[in-house]
Write a structure and sequence with these properties.
Elements (H helix, E strand, L loop, with lengths): L12 H9 L5 H5 L3 H8 L3 H15 L6 H15 L1 E2 L4 H6 L4 E2 L3 E5 L6 H13 L10 E6 L6 H11 L1 H4 L4 H7 L1 E4 L4 H17 L2 E7 L1 H8 L4 H21 L3 E5 L1 E3 L4 H4 L7 H8 L6 E3 L2 H7 L2 E8 L2 E8 L6 E8 L2 E4 L5 E2 L16 E2 L5 E2 L1
Parallel strand pairs: 3-7, 3-10, 4-5, 4-6, 6-7
Antiparallel strand pairs: 1-2, 8-9, 10-11, 11-12, 12-13, 12-14, 15-16
Helix pairs in contact: 3-4, 7-8, 11-13
Length: 371
Amino acid sequence: MANKLINQMGLPKSIANVFAARNITTAKEALSLTEFELMEVLDVSLADVTSAIARISEITCPPYQTALTLMEQRVQKEHMGGHLPTRLKGLDNALCGGIPFGVLTELVGPAGIGKTQLCLKLALLASLPTAYGGLGGRVIYIDVESKFSSKRMIEMGSKSFPDMFHTKGMAQEMAGRILVLQPASLSEFTESLQQLKISLLQNQVKLLIIDSMAALISGEYGQGPARQHLLGWHISFIKSLAEFSRIPVVVTNQVRSQTRDEACQYSFQGQSREKAVEDHTGYDSHLVAALGIHWAHAVTIRLVLDSKSGKRFIKLAKSPISPPLAFPYNITSSGITLLNDDGIELTGPEINSIHCQGHSDIINFDGERFQ
């Protein structure tokens, strides 16, 4: 706006001509001088200068907005942007409708906690006809660890939507809408990403799932600058896919052992380094998301799937529109089912903590697995 031309601001022609004659053509040039300096340069009265500056300032400076206006705009944007309902009532309410379009949503947790189960259900829901509350489109499912199960997904569909799935040929039709890629290496995965923008449009894709990103990265690269640079490229590209296609993008992340320094990095309470480390020793968890703090900042929604005291929880650990909530859940034949739709509001580092009770196959700091 500073470079907006004065002759386009609706000033009286006589004043606009004076500005042009004195080679003051933009708002920036006019506003960088005081009123008295303009009087001398333009050779006009103070009243004419004051009126001209008021007009230029009004057009150049953005108008004030109230907090209510901003809130209404955000609600409208969320409504227009769209969501993929998870059919988990409490979680959908907290997310104002479900998994949002156009951003990255991360599922993080130890092996066997239910990340792939949730991905299968989301794939099913996105491929459902709109008459049944789905998105009525195709799904691209990048299955890194060969965990995708058509049989399990169809079982979820049969239990959740018996009337539809008992129709002859419906199960085959639904399964045919889900395109599964199984890259054998990080380089193969990177090549497939380059083609995804075209595929998203040509195949009317409504959901992209990557299960799991951490398995690709840890399989070929250790820690250090090279890995962070590589991860940075993938973060940027996947975010651009989400924004370009305006569809939900869900990425699963594994866990690894936590270093002492990261006890401070993952504490968002503003406490001192010594206090954070001291508090961390009291946890029964020393695990963090495998892709690190930079990835954590890149995702818009983070769901932590956790297990503590024999109970499983989906924790809404990061969201721009919801408080940190934890929902207890079970895994049934129809998929993940919440035990309580109200959720439990958590405070402090507990919302981001990841426990390992009864689960194996955890990624350690070097990207290797241990039992």
